[in-house]
Write a structure and sequence with these properties.
The structure holds 2 protein chains of 2 kinds. By secondary structure, chain A is of the alpha+beta class. Chain A contains 25 helices and 23 strands. In chain B, the strands form 2 sheets. In chain B, strands 1, 2, 3, 4, 5, 8, 9, 10, 11, 12 and 13 form an 11-stranded antiparallel β-sheet that branches. Chain B has a two-stranded parallel ribbon with strand order 6-7.
Chain lengths: 830, 274
């Protein structure tokens, strides 16, 4: 049985299948490979895809009825294929269009020649809500306004590509292009191989290179680039983290930035650091509360003044919306003719301006045949698809258009092409579009091969937006095979490449031979490490503390649980002493048994420092600091958090959870150890874990020492208490290996407090802390003072040990405060 | 009136209960040169000493001065002073070359949106020529509106001003623009200073920031009209700048770090120099 049985390729033009049901030439090998696998194997790959996508955290935020949900972006397993010759034309057309739009923006914010010459009516610009008068007088370095463009293209029955929309403000989706390729390669490697596909993973390098070349002259040859995000709750946050990480640039929020004297800086752990290029993913109006919306908390006051002074590049430039306004769309062919003196290479979907009386009348007459869109909305929100709408909806839109004609346009319905898509266990035709990405720097325009193919997964639907239940496809642009014969003669190159210290991003997969000039071959300048953003440092520091605390609390609860079990006091109040001493009482616990208290400390979501809350906190912080964490750390932490949630949801008791968690956290620490470069992020993480560990060990010591007060060292109860304490600190085994087998107070204390070799000891932890805080800093001196308390032999006199532990706990608090303060100095003055 | 020179002093004083820092400000207080108004000198004095200053002309041609005070401070005193030579003869007209661009001042803008009430009112004020419609609009405003400080605030919408039949100069200007625009007469909002009475040489008077309107009349250019006072803007009006509405010519805009209660005192003195 074929996957294509009963496939309808005739009703609409199909991208992959001819009218007669035979595959188009460039789809032959992929369709054959899918057939060979068969429906069952494909079904298993669908499951694999779910696992891969979820573990990579490929999500977007979806708005439905006011609520927001995090969704994985469904990737269809059948790739969309574009032959090389077809792509070449598209690419030329895209370049041409973006060049013209860019020239329009430069013109409309300075000379306004196209308006003065009457090519575009004045009121098209002057009545556009997207015309940013506050951006007047800002001349973006290199004259570049459109650094990144995402154009929406469709194809109709005749197979011609048509532009549907230009997105020149903060177009999103490029990260899904990269992710789709990555995921498809993992899930269906069989499809590749036979077709030479052009790579897409160089997009971040391409973007970074463009941003660098669009930096202001003052930046010199090492511009500091940042990606400005609205934050972790933005629907495209995943993309922001991916691009920042792949470009190797800080992901900043508005509060990380400040301006002083028309220069932009970011707040780092080493004071302020100058910023030259801001790749911003927040909308114009939120950029600068001084010049634009005063209630914006997302931006940074003074950004526009800095842009006006020419000390910083804001990419994309401010005010681009005036060019991608859906009404201005109708004038883009005129722009191409006016600025470039060329005929448009790409057609565009016929568009009616409701602001024009004649065109409006036509629209109102043909509402049931047209698509009506608000001029300045995106994401498929608030539009009318005439042929699919009921009479009431049409009337609603008729009223809206009449009330605000300039606010709406209408477009002919394009009979969007369809594409084989895996639905259930067979291939079914679904409508697709294409969003290619165009990147422009100071000296060149590049087009990412392919782009994001979006597919309307619902049968018959023409709406492909991810926010409206669409999915996507990996998009393949085939390499020109004839012009690049494989070299088979002579010695074959070694498959093992020499190791390289640094990736040369300009040499990665660029496919524009006609533009490949000598100066493009330079290696990017090597930069010194940029200090961390202070906000990120705090997030990472707390990931370390949260993870260590989750482990520490689990170990303590397990150990006291063991003790309480032996003493038969699980369900009584008498077994509570140790737990309460360690963590303090809490009001919500009415039972006040060991079990209820331990549950509160392990699985209670309402306890902000329960094991569950710590792991949740670590994951949430990691989500907001993803660009400094390795992918492995994120996947592992994400996996741990999911596993813990599942365990708790299944009703596991506190002792089961406390038993399991340390295994996970230790694995996580291992992943951190083995995948994290020894940079500042690692140091900060280490600082958090070690300070937390010192504090946890000190708490256990305090409890142990108080519970054995006045007992002789060889009293069975004292031996029991020290065994429990050592186990609570994960140090029982270390003790047995270094000391006499039976836990003995003074020796246990020496190990827990003063050992230079046991990684659980307070001295060890403090030494690690001192090695990662800045030499000579306040935190460094505080740590030194704490270490001094541990140099002399321990005084086991009456109450001396608890007093020492108490004092050291105070030191830990002071070190913590000094560390946080140390990350907050030097922001407002150099 | 060939020799009529005024000195304007516009004082703004903020007092903060707690220290604030990182203060960034933009002021539109310096009069703009126009065909009938030249500015021989202008200066802005700021205390404490700003850590940075800048100046530029914005989209509407208004002179903007910016300054930052980064260090902690508990007060901010800004004195904008300018010498202005006025040469306008009230009957003189200055045809404008930018008639095509005047479409800027026809549609609703952030603070000027109107409803059916404004449209019906406007249609009653429509006369045979734009100039007469403007006259009718001013007359209506003078007779129907009451100048009432304290009944409106900076953000009061036009339709509420109309319903209340009252407000201050800013409200008069906004409502006047809304009426004229709905009659398809381009109308822009003007920010400036107004002397409450005619001055003799050497005389000083406590004055106010003021707002009025310029309407574009075919062939005559932008005609200044003052719906609040019904005095043709001439030697008692000094123009700072214009825009679609108040939001385009806000005299003082600022942000700072640090929470603090604050008090504000503003004063304008106009002196006739010659």
């Amino acid at each position: 049985m074929s996957l294509l049985d009963g496939y309808d390729a005739a009703t609409y033009r199909d991208e992959a299948i001819e009218d007669d049901g035979s595959p188009r030439a460039h789809y032959l090998s992929v369709l054959a490979a899918l057939e060979r696998m068969g429906a069952d194997a494909l079904g298993r790959r669908v499951e694999l895809r779910e696992v891969v996508q979820r573990s990579r955290g490929v999500t977007f935020t979806m708005r439905t009825e006011g609520a927001e949900t995090e969704r994985t972006f469904p990737l269809d397993l059948v790739p969309r294929i574009i032959p090389a010759s077809e792509w070449a034309v598209l690419e030329d057309g895209l370049r041409q269009r973006v060049r013209a739009l860019d020239l329009f923006l430069e013109d409309v914010y300075s000379e306004q020649a196209i308006l003065g010459d009457g090519v575009i009516p004045w009121d098209m610009v002057l009545s556009s809500p997207q015309f940013q008068r506050r951006a007047w007088g800002i001349r973006p370095p290199g004259g570049v306004h459109v650094h990144v463009a995402g154009l929406d293209l469709v194809r109709g029955d005749d197979g011609h590509w048509l532009v549907l929309e230009d997105n020149l403000r903060v177009p999103s989706g490029a990260s899904y292009v990269i992710e789709n390729r990555e995921v498809l390669t993992r899930v269906l490697p069989e499809l590749f191989g036979s077709s030479p596909v052009r790579p897409v993973d160089h997009y971040p390098a391409m973007l970074r290179s463009a941003l660098r070349s669009a930096a202001p002259p003052s930046a010199g040859d090492k511009p500091e680039i940042v990606l400005l995000t609205p934050g972790a709750y933005n629907s495209a946050y995943f993309e922001h983290t991916l691009l920042a990480r792949h470009m190797g640039v800080p992901l900043v929020e508005g509060s990380d930035l400040l301006t002083d004297g028309d220069v932009v800086y970011m707040r780092t752990t080493r004071g302020r650091q100058r910023v030259d290029v801001i790749y911003r993913r927040i909308d114009d109006e939120y950029l600068d509360p001084l010049a634009l919306r005063p209630d914006s908390l997302l931006g940074c006051p003074g950004l526009l003044a800095a842009a006006r002074a020419g000390t910083v590049t804001i990419a994309n430039a401010i005010g681009n919306g005036v060019a991608d306004d859906k009404a201005m769309f109708a004038y883009v062919p005129a722009m191409i003719r006016y600025y470039l003196n060329e005929e448009p290479i790409l057609g565009s979907v016929p568009t009616f301006l409701c602001g024009d009386r004649d065109q409006r009348e036509e629209v109102l007459k043909r509402m049931d045949q047209l698509v009506v869109k608000p001029v300045d909305a995106s994401g498929g929100y608030g539009m009318l698809i005439g042929p699919a709408a009921d009479e009431a909806t049409i009337e609603l839109f008729r009223a809206r258009i009449t009330a605000n004609p300039r606010g709406y346009i209408a477009q002919e319905v394009v009979r969007l092409t369809r594409h084989p898509t895996l639905i259930g266990s067979a291939l079914a035709p679904r409508h697709v579009d294409l969003r290619p990405f165009v990147v422009q720097g100071g000296d060149r325009i590049d087009v990412l091969p392919g782009g994001l193919t979006r597919v309307a997964l619902r049968e018959g639907s023409l709406v492909v937006n991810s926010s409206q239940g669409g999915g996507s496809k990996d998009t393949w642009v085939l390499r020109e095979t004839t012009s690049r014969p494989r070299v088979e003669t002579g010695a074959r190159r070694s498959l093992v490449r020499p190791l390289r210290e640094e990736r040369d991003d300009t040499a990665l997969g660029w496919q524009q031979p006609q533009q490949q000039q000598q100066q493009q071959q330079q290696r990017p300048p090597v930069r010194g490490p940029t200090p961390m953003l202070s906000r990120i440092a705090e997030l990472v520091y707390w990931i370390g503390r949260f993870m260590e605390r989750a482990e520490g609390v689990s170990k303590m609860v397990s150990s006291y649980h063991y003790s309480a079990t032996q003493l038969g006091s699980l369900e009584t109040r008498s077994g509570l002493h140790d737990l309460i001493a360690a963590f303090g009482e809490h009001e919500e616990d009415e039972e006040m048994t060991f079990r209820s208290t331990a549950t509160w400390w392990v699985t209670a979501p309402s306890n902000p420092t329960s094991v569950l809350s710590c792991i949740r906190g670590a994951r949430e912080n990691a989500r907001r600091a993803r660009e400094v964490l390795s992918l492995e750390v994120w996947e592992s932490l994400n996996g741990t958090a999911s596993a813990l949630e599942a365990l708790v949801a299944a009703g596991a008791s506190y002792d089961v959870v406390a038993d399991r968690v340390p295994n996970w956290t230790r694995a996580l620490f291992g992943v951190v150890e083995t995948t994290t470069p020894r940079d500042e992020a690692w140091e900060v993480f280490r600082l958090g874990t070690m300070l937390e560990r010192a504090a946890m060990t000190l708490r256990a010591v305090l409890i142990g020492a108080e519970s054995v007060e006045r007992l002789p060292d060889d009293d069975p109860l004292a031996i029991h208490a020290w065994t429990v304490t050592l186990r609570a600190c994960s140090a029982l085994d270390a003790y047995r290996r270094t000391s006499v087998a039976i836990p003995h107070g003074p020796e246990a204390l020496t190990l827990l407090l003063q050992s230079a070799t046991c990684p659980r000891s307070v001295l060890f932890a403090l030494r690690e802390v001192q090695s990662v805080v800045r030499f000579g800093s306040h935190a460094f001196r505080e740590t030194g003072r704490a270490r001094k308390l541990l140099i002399a032999p321990l005084d086991h006199g009456d109450g001396k040990i608890p007093a020492l532990a108490d004092r050291l706990l105070g030191s830990c608090d002071q070190i913590h405060a000094a560390v946080i303060d140390g990350w907050r100095v030097g922001w407002e003055t150099p | 009136m060939s020799d009529y020179t005024l000195k304007i002093e516009h004082r703004t004083s903020y007092r903060y209960e707690h220290q604030i820092r990182n203060s960034k400000n933009e002021v539109r207080m310096t009069p703009t040169a126009t065909p009938w108004q030249t500015i021989p000198s202008a200066q802005l004095i700021v205390d404490p000493m700003p850590s940075h200053r800048g100046a530029y002309f914005d989209y509407f041609g208004t002179s903007v001065e910016s300054f930052d005070v980064m260090a902690p401070h508990d007060h901010l005193d800004v004195v904008a002073s300018a010498v202005v030579q006025l040469s306008r003869n009230p009957s003189e007209r200055f045809p404008t070359p930018d008639v095509a661009r005047a479409v800027e001042y026809l549609p609703p803008s952030p603070m000027i949106a109107w409803n059916q009430d404004v449209v019906s009112l406007a249609s009653n004020l429509r006369r045979d020529s734009p100039a007469e419609s403007v006259r009718a609009t001013i007359d209506w405003m003078r007779s129907a509106m009451t100048y009432e400080p304290g009944t409106t605030e900076v953000g009061t919408p036009v339709v509420e001003i109309l319903a209340a039949r009252g407000g201050v100069c800013q409200d008069y200007a906004h409502l006047c623009c809304a009426i004229l625009r709905s009659l398809e007469i381009p109308a822009r909002y003007v920010s400036g200073y107004f002397a409450p009475r005619p001055l003799s040489t050497g005389e000083s008077v406590e004055a106010e920031s003021h707002a009025w309107v310029e309407a574009l009349l075919p062939g005559d250019g932008w005609l200044p009209i003052d719906p609040t006072n019904d005095i043709e803007p001439a030697e008692r009006h000094v123009k700072v700048g214009h825009g679609r509405d108040y939001t385009d010519v806000v005299p003082f805009q600022g942000v700072h770090s640090g929470e603090s209660a604050q008090t504000l005192e503003v004063g304008v003195t106009i002196t006739r120099v010659s």
